[in-house]
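Morning - flavin-adenine dinucleotide inputs below, output right after.
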Amino acid sequence: MSLHTSLKVGGPADLFAIPEDVEDLKVLLSWLGEQNIPCLTIGRGYNLLVRDKGIRGAVISLERLNRISSVNGSRVKAEAGAENLAVVRFAQQLGLGGIGFISGIPGSIGGAIKMNAGAYGEGILERTERLTLLREGNIYDFRMEELEYGYRHLKLQADDIILSALFKLEEREAHQTEEEIRKDSDLRRSKHNVGYPSAGSFFKNPHGQAAWRLIDAAGMRGECVGGAQASEVHSNFLVNTGGASTQDFLLLAERIINTVYATSGVTLEEEVRIVGEI
Ligand SMILES: Cc1cc2nc3c(=O)[nH]c(=O)nc-3n(C[C@H](O)[C@H](O)[C@H](O)COP(=O)(O)OP(=O)(O)OC[C@H]3O[C@@H](n4cnc5c(N)ncnc54)[C@H](O)[C@@H]3O)c2cc1C
C-alpha cells in the first residue's frame, strides 16, 4: 500500500481491485461477499495511514469511475474517482463555480466527500446537494439533509461506497475561478511546501484552535521518530523524511498527542484514516 498512499508507508493488501464501472464494482462486491472477504474503498490515498502489516482483505480503488457531467446547466455531477481539480475545471468551463477551495486539495471526490475535505473554513459537503451510495448491493440517492456530517466528518454505514456527488454551484466567470485556483495554489506553495511525502494535516484542528499552534507550544515542531517527523515547515504535517515505517508515524503521533495534552489539556485527534492489521 506504500505505492498507493501519499505517506509512502504501509504493508500489502491481500487484493487490490480497480473496477471498470459500477456494474463491475457490483460483480466484485458480490464475489467478495460470497468469499467472505472484507473490503476497503479508497480514493487516491492522500489521507490514509496503512499499518505495516498491511490490509487483510481487498482494497478497491474507484479511480476509473471518474466521469463528470453537467446537470440542468447549474449542477455538476462527479463520480467518486474524479479528481477534485478536474471537477473545478469542468465547472469553470460551464461558467459555474463555488468549489474553488477544493482545487488544491489532492485526491478524488470520493475521498473529499468522505472526509468533508475543505479549506478556508469551507467544506465540500456544504456545496453538495445529493450523494449516490452503494449500500449492501443497492444504489441509494440521498439529499444532504438526510445525512449527518460536520468538520472533516460524514457519517455513513461502515461498508457504504460513495459512487458520485451532485454539486450545487453558482454562476461564476471563468477568470474568477482561475484567480481562486491561482491564489490557492500560491498559498499552498508558500505554506505547505514541506519537501517530503505527507498526508497534509495529520491532526484535526480542535474547535476554535489550530493544531499546529498547540504542537508548536508543546515544543514538538521537528520532533522525529525514525523516518517520521513533525515537519519543520508546518508542524501539523507529519512527513516521511525517508525510510519511515507506519509504526514510526504511530509512535510520533502518540508522543505529540501526549505532549500536547500535558502542555495545553487539549486532546488532538487524527484527521488521517488509520487502517490495516494491528
Ligand atoms: C499536501 C496535502 C495537502 C492537503 N490539504 C488538505 C486540505 O487543505 N483540506 C483537506 O480537507 N484535506 C487536505 N489534505 C488531505 C487529503 O487530500 C484529503 O483528505 C482528500 O480528500 C483525500 O482524498 P483521497 O481521494 O486521497 O482519499 P483517501 O485518502 O484515499 O481516503 C480517505 C478516506 O475516504 C474513504 N473513501 C475514499 N473514497 C471512498 C468512496 N468512494 N466511498 C467510501 N469511502 C471512500 C477512505 O476509505 C478513507 O477512509 C491534504 C493532503 C496532502 C497530501
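Note: The chain has three domains: 13-61, 68-190, 211-275.

O.
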